Amino acid sequence: MKANKRLSTIDGIRGITIVSMILYHFCWDLVYICGFPMAWYGSYGAYLWQQSICCSFILISGFCLNLSRRPVRNGCLVFGCGLLVTAVTLVAMPDEPVICGVLTLLGSCMLILAVCKPVLEKIPPLAGLFCSLFLFLFFRHVNSGYLGFFGRPLIRLPESLYSGWISTYFGFPKPGFVSSDYFSLLPWLFLYLTGYFIYRCTGLADGRVPHPYLTVKIPVFDWIGRHSLLIYMLHQVVLYGIAMAILFILQA
């Protein structure tokens, strides 16, 4: 969108999420590189922190797909960045590589929705929103071998589904699969769709003027949000350097 028509509030929320992610990853570096004793980092509260970050990214990306003029190009770019992250981590940290990470997921979702958009536009926005959220919650534990709600298994899935790299990409991780940032197509595609339909429920897709709450500029954070992909690609390199410097000082 043109600068004077941007939904600045969304940029600001994305920027806040980026900062939250940087802090979370810095804590990871302090624990696993510097050896800081941070027991709370393995707690359920830290898990909720991590989930708040990834869910925000996915919802916002689905929301903003409606604003994209080149969804296929953008999808290929983000997917390619995901592959680059995978390649670098396979070399730099082979014991905990990033395979099927969040960028791979977001790029895949962009490409899928770009193809399916003519069909999705025919679905009533509110119905699409509720169906997408329902399916996300129902498939939430597909990686663990079952379908159900809030950790309660309703349907056990056959082990034969969990058999290879293609199945891992879709949400059925093969035996022995390890990734430090795993976001399979299922269930997260449905959360992406939830964000897509949230936008359509606002009426903006029908040409309505954005609500003032959607155009609030949050200083600094809205700038970070507009450059989120570049910051995402560079932040861990910078954090790793800081962590190694701290480790060197501690060992000196």
Annotate the secondary structure layout.
Layout: H1 8-32, H2 44-65, H3 71-92, H4 102-120, H5 125-138, E1 146-149, E2 152-156, H6 165-170, H7 185-202, H8 221-226, H9 228-251
Antiparallel strand pairs: 1-2
Query: Counting H and I runs of at least 4 residues, what is the number of helices?
Result: 9
Derived from helix and strand composition plus strand pairing, the structural class reads mainly alpha
The tally of strands reads: 2
Main β sheet profile: 2 strands, antiparallel
Integer average pLDDT? 91
Tertiary shape: globular
Structure characterization notes:
The structure is a single chain. This protein starts with 7 loop residues before the first helix and ends with a helix. It has helices at 8-32, 44-65, 71-92, 102-120, 125-138, 165-170, 185-202, 221-226, 228-251; strands at 146-149, 152-156. The chain has nine helices and two strands. A two-stranded antiparallel ribbon has the order 1-2. A hairpin with a 2-residue loop joins strand 1 (146-149) and strand 2 (152-156). The mean pLDDT is 91. It has one domain (3-251). 62% of the residues lie in helices and 4% in strands. It has 252 residues and is mainly alpha-helical.
Structure described in brief:
By secondary structure, this protein is mainly α.
Annotation keywords:
252 residues; mainly alpha; globular
